[in-house]
Amino acid sequence: MLRTPAGTARLDILEWLKDPVAHFPRQRHGDPAEDGVTASAVAAKLGVPRKVAETHLGLLVNIGLLRTKRIRRRQYYRRDDMRIAEVARVFEKGW
Asked: Residue 32 in contact with residue 51, Cβ under 8 Å?
């Protein structure tokens, strides 16, 4: 899923969310480092409509690589580094 052309965007999102303060502008609500970033911020960075970004983010949430937090009416996304490390170990072992 991460090796498809769309997977490149997902890998970019995961990379940007390592240091969201460096890659995304300040948000009105929520601290990017603590709470994560909105789908709108990711969409702007990717240069795609918000719905496309939400699809990428949703897939990453579904496989457990991102966590969500609701602040007011918006969903904020951040990395789940423990889960990412678990997945990386599985691939290092060769399934």
From this structure: no
| DSSP conformation class of 21 | H
Q: Where are the beta strands (DSSP E) in the chain?
A: 37-38, 66-71, 74-79
Mean pLDDT calculated for residue range 16-21: 95
Main-chain dihedrals φ then ψ at residue 4, nearest 5 degrees:
-80, 165
Cα 80 from Cα 90, distance rounded (Å): 16
Q: How far apart are CA 4 and CA 11, in angstroms?
A: 10
Please, which residues bridge with residue 71 across strands? 74
User: What secondary structure letter does DSSP report for 75?
Assistant: E
**pTM, 2 dp:** 0.85
Give the residue-averaged pLDDT of 44-65: 95
